[in-house]
Amino acid sequence: MKVTLTVNGVPRTADVEPRRLLADALRHDLGLTGTHLGCEHGVCGSCTVLVDGRPMRSCLMFAVSAEGAEITTVEGCRSPDGGLGHVQQAFVDCHGLQCGFCTPGFVTTITAYLRENPDPTEEEAREAIGGNLCRCTGYQNIVKSVLRAAELQRGAV
Ligand code: FES
Ligand code: FES
Description:
With 157 residues, the chain is of the alpha+beta class. It folds into two domains: 2-76, Beta-grasp domain (Ubiquitin-like (UB roll)); 86-156, Orthogonal Bundle (DNA polymerase, domain 1). Helix content is 34%, strand content 15%. α2 crosses α5. The longest helix is centred in the last third of the chain and has 17 residues, at 140-156. The chain is globular. This is (2Fe-2S)-binding protein.
């Protein structure tokens, strides 16, 4: 089946099996390997992408269900000039990653969160990432990254 969607602002078409997961279509059909698959059961959050601006687990969604949707992957969370986006930069500043496997899911999740909550408290930042698992960092530096990204975002307005 043909599926047409906009990915990171670019119209894309893929020819997929009806049961092709959105995550697999992004990685294997469209070559966007920034989206990572961990549990493949909707638990870890590493596959999170934004579908029409909302975080979705791309391991739980068929590619054909995304027909006509606007998808943002971690590759699309960059700044308009092509450099690191605020959330990506914040992870660098705060050492918010170690192996990096979980990071794409955190970056997309936090990007969507900060659009609606531009000035979170530490507690709110902790809650915002409550659905994403990381086996390396112990989360503290990811919480710091949320707060730092909010600061960078406010500074840019
Ligand atoms: S791979 Fe999708 S939630 Fe874990
Ligand atoms: S940095 Fe390794 S799983 Fe999060």
